Amino acid sequence: MAYNSKNIDWWLLAPILILCLISLITLYSFTIYNQNNFIFFHHQIIWIISGFIVLFLVSLIDFRSLASDYQLINIFYGLEILLLTSTLIFGREIGGNRAWLNFGSFSIQPVEFAKIILILFLSRYFADNNLNIRQNKYVLKSFLIVLPFLLLVGLQRDYGSALLLLGIWFLMLILAGAKISQILTIILIFLIIFIISWFFLLDQVHKDRIISIIFPEIDPYGISYNQSQALIAISSGGLLGKGFSKSTQAQLGFLPAAHTDFIFSAIAEEFGFIGVLTIIICFAIIFQRLAQLSLNNNNNFVKLFSMGYLIIIFLQVFINIGMNLAFLPVIGISLPFVSYGGSNLLALFLGLGIVFNIIKNTQNA
Questions:
Q1: How do residues 261-275 score in pLDDT, each as one tens digit?
Q2: How far, in Å, CA of 284 to CA of 333, rounded?
Q3: Per-residue CA distances from 297 to 116, 158, 359 (Å)
Q4: What distances in angstroms separate CA 302 from CA 5, 59, 75, 128, 310, one per listed residue?
Q5: What pLDDT does residue 101 have?
Q6: Is 140 exposed, middle or buried (0-12, 13-18, 19+ CB in 10 A)?
Q7: Residue ranges per structural domain of the chain
């Protein structure tokens, strides 16, 4: 089927382009006083261009063959299990997490692609069992889909990504029509697991991160330092910000991980409330377009995949901004299309390619 501009939802693509541009502008500003940071800007350009190539190629495939082919979905699922297992064995450890596979000067984080594969699998499963999901055995079967991912990512000590995968499953289960009693039971089980994990599984550093959210004054120069600096950066930005490359927290190195976890704070310092508002408006438009695509389609797979993709972006935005505003612990979740990092960008563009594929084929159906 021919591809043309009419198949593109520009209201969905435009805010993503703006977010990518904001990312590049911010990363380039870090190079003004420290040329060593240029590698982040250079790599991000490569990742964004690669992402748009992935978007274009994936959008050419008819999603209807993908949605109806369990064998192909199972192949993707198996490959992801293989990647996560390889990462656990051969992966590079960063910050205590063994979550990256090296390929020359580049590295990938396989768990990012697990998110897209998970919503693909769950969308097919819930679409096929939409009349049965209120039976507990079908809820349990849906959990068994995500369980291998959770175990492998947990063994990598990437607890933030594990929580994100769990959140994707839980929210998609709700959208699929689970009963209130099932939802409340799952929440109770989560609470019990959290209590057990607190006493027997979590390291002290993870406990301290949670405690610091409630009592930030306990260790302001230790476990609370990152978020304290993030709040200083945000509050000092004012309405218009300090200007391009004129921030102090980010440029002078007081704000850790300014190009990844805390890029939101860096943007707030340099471009102020206007910069923050631009980001929020972009994400709001993205959410609206994905929700509209889901609600306006009669195909259950389309409804669920569109909302699943929305859930991935929403959870990452909510958690990342929550980390920057110090009402959520730091768990290493990036800001979609803005934070530096190739794996998250490529995975998001992969999912976006499927979304555009859906738009193309439903418009021409």
A1: 999 999 999 999 999
A2: 19
A3: 20, 36, 10
A4: 21, 14, 20, 12, 12
A5: 85
A6: exposed
A7: 5-363
